Amino acid sequence: MSEVNRVWRLRKRPVGDITDDVLSFADESLPEPRQGEFLFRLNYLSLDPTNRIWMSDMPQYMPPVALDAPMRGVVCGTVVKSHHPDYTEGAIVSGFGVWADYQIGTPETVSPMGDTTPVAVVDAFSTFAVVGPTAYFGLLDIGEPKKGETVVVSAAAGAVGSIVGQIAKIKGCRVVGLAGTNEKCAWIQNDLGFDVAINYRTADVPAALAAACPDGIDVYFDNVAGEILDACLTLMNLKGRIPTCGLIAQYNATEPVPGPYNYAMILMRRLRVEGFIILDYSERHPEAVAALGQWMAEGKIKVRTEIVDGLENALQTLRKLYTGANTGKLMIRV
Ligand SMILES: NC(=O)c1ccc[n+]([C@@H]2O[C@H](COP(=O)([O-])OP(=O)(O)OC[C@H]3O[C@@H](n4cnc5c(N)ncnc54)[C@H](OP(=O)(O)O)[C@@H]3O)[C@@H](O)[C@H]2O)c1
Q: Which of 60, 63, 105, 126 could connect to 110 by a Cys-Cys bridge, CB 3.0–4.6 Å?
């Protein structure tokens, strides 16, 4: 075990893009687990758009990371020293942790991953920890897609969006995805089976969406908000559903963002717009894992993981999410 613990700490709240001075990365000594705690070594760090929310002090669904505290992250690690009978050395754990080589765990923060076969630990972590269940519950519980309906998803080549589109196909829907490059569009259409892919950076989005959705939109799975939400609102069918999963188009905004211009459509078409956070579904997590695991084993859902080596690269890699430089689930391997 190393004597040195490299730790990322939050030094200032970001304004706009996440600049280098927002976090520091420095050597510290190893923490010592107390009774009921254990020490684990980081194997994988999930990079998530919500990291930018946690760095800020905007109203949010968990307490913001305190200034000078280690940066919070969704982590996967190996127990190296334990004062808890249920967490033996060598056990693989995942849950909430921090951006550090070594950290203290408790049963309240991380859980044993157990036997993940036939799925490898890295795939179980990348797909089942957050993004797969987010796609599953957001689409099925809130979107309630029915066979023959039209489902539109934004950030469609990302970790959540790529799975949303594939579940919607399994449910017999017409699926339209919006993504930021032609390569991403080719991937979701040719490899993942989306019916239509729209490059929202080059297309006339309202016109392209209207052409792709001749029967209107029944479910818009919103990962981004902003102009794409507005374009979808105009096409929503009566009693349409909008699971509000994320707002990545505005996470780095420096000024108040305008509300949806087409807000009136919520009334005119009697829409249900419902925000959700995956933590709301903690108790049903095994249901999503079972369904996703089966679909993956049957080849009905394909997942892509983009792994970057080195905890020292966490900050610059995180920025990829906000520029669209990632495809699929973005993670750091330590
Ligand atoms: N509610 C929950 O519990 C929950 C859980 C997990 C994630 N989320 C949310 O789900 C969304 C997707 O998360 P993820 O982890 O799957 O990330 P991701 O989609 O893998 O990565 C983010 C993607 O967003 C797209 N993007 C960035 N800026 C954009 C903009 N201005 N307009 C349109 N698209 C933009 C980029 O793709 P392009 O190249 O296509 O632009 C980028 O690749 C995020 O909003 C996140 O906050 C919510």
A: 105
